Amino acid sequence: MPETTPSLALPLIAAGQAQKHVTHNEALMGLDALVQLACRDKDLGAPPPTPAEGDRYLVLSPSPTGAWASLSGQIARFQDGRWSGLAPKPGWLAWMLDEDELYAFTATGWIGLRSAPKLLQNLTRLGIGTTADAANPFAAKLNTALWTALTTAEGGTGDLRYTLNKQAAGNILSLLFQSAFTGRAEIGLSGNDDFAIKVAPDTGGFREALRIDRASGRVDLKGPMPSPLLGAPALRLTQDLATDGSLLGGGLTVQATSGGTPWPLAGLAGTMGTAGASSGYPGGLAIFVKPADGARPGTLREVARFGPDGNLGLGTSATLTTKLGVAGIIAHTADNTWSLGTPALRAAVLYAGTGAINTSDAREKTPVVPLAEAEIAAAHALAREIGTFRFLEALARKGAGARRHVGLTVQRATAILEAHGLDPFAYGFLCRDAWPAVPPRPTIPASPAEVDAAGAEIVAAVPAEDAVPGRAAGERYGFRTDELLLFLARGLEARLTALEAAPKGA
Q1: 20 to 30 A from 5, CA-CA: which of 40, 256, 258, 416?
Q2: CATH: 1.10.510.10, 3.40.50.720, 1.10.287.130, 1.10.10.10. Which one for 371-501?
Q3: What's the pTM value of the predicted model, to 2 decimals?
């Protein structure tokens, strides 16, 4: 039979032993020293000068002195006026009263449990609330998690940056979102260094929904990034909306509500739908609105169309044959405020079924004052200036084939009115308009069509645009012909009246 217990080395009472109470008391004192072990200190190299009965210390000094000289690495116990040592074994725990910290004895010595996390280095697996495995070396099963920055008061910077890193561009670095352990969304760098967002339906693989080009910062919704096109657009939309009978393919839908009724606005680029419907408009852009009756998308009403040739159609889906085609009334948003055309950018010809209607409402005018004698005389003189002329620009283009026009010039009219003592530009039938200089525009190079991996065109080719030379500041004179004719008509009426009043044969 052994003389001590195997774990705490407490003395055992032998058979036939005399003075059994001594052995029994020693065992009890050992239990008293080791059970609920609480030590005064662990940093002393010699016994304290006035220890109390039952005090315990961890002697961690490699070379203690005094009564502890032979107790290095042991638990020093003061009992019955003398010091004795107890050799610890791995797994023993001791509470340090001066530090308020629990220590554990290991094969390498005593370790404070507060600093134990610092020793958790190079772990191959870690599970929190669940079991980690080879496929998931780190696993956590919990309902909430918090990462917060170490504040400046705590010795930190107040910032928090979470870093994820992959080996090379061809690897994957992503966050995968699952529902019932089935992937539904993924964000990150998937096989390249462009940031992408992918989603997955109930069945089938992931489909890319958004990509941000790492070099340019351009945003692409569904599809590969385009090469620079007319200044590299910051946002390109390639979503196919050919669903529910809609004509909106490869465009954008922006939807608002009015009284609970949705009103979508959609753009159309390329062909309409993946099936390439015959109603497609390759390379163009159309804008639709939903009728107020809330009809299905297939009955969207087209309000504008931009052709690949630069033409614009408003309110029509017919093929554009002019730069601007309008199926409806053209009206400004403010009455009598803006002009149609400018002095420097005139229309060559104005075709109309009837004449122009000019406001002549007595409620909007001062009373009509008869022309004075000087004005009538000036009208006589202006009428005598009427003759034929040809435009210099037409002569330069057509030569002798330039057509002759009938009229007079503002410069001669101005001189005649001044000769009769009149202020020429006090009259509305004389006009002088000036314009500022316009800087030139450089040539815009052509952009070739872009195709995807299957060879399908995803971006139409854009033709080159010639340079525009710009325009110097200038001025131009003109007539309000209707008012000029009325001015001349009054002079003609005065002349006829004078002739009729003259004696016959005079």
Answers
A1: 40
A2: 1.10.10.10
A3: 0.45
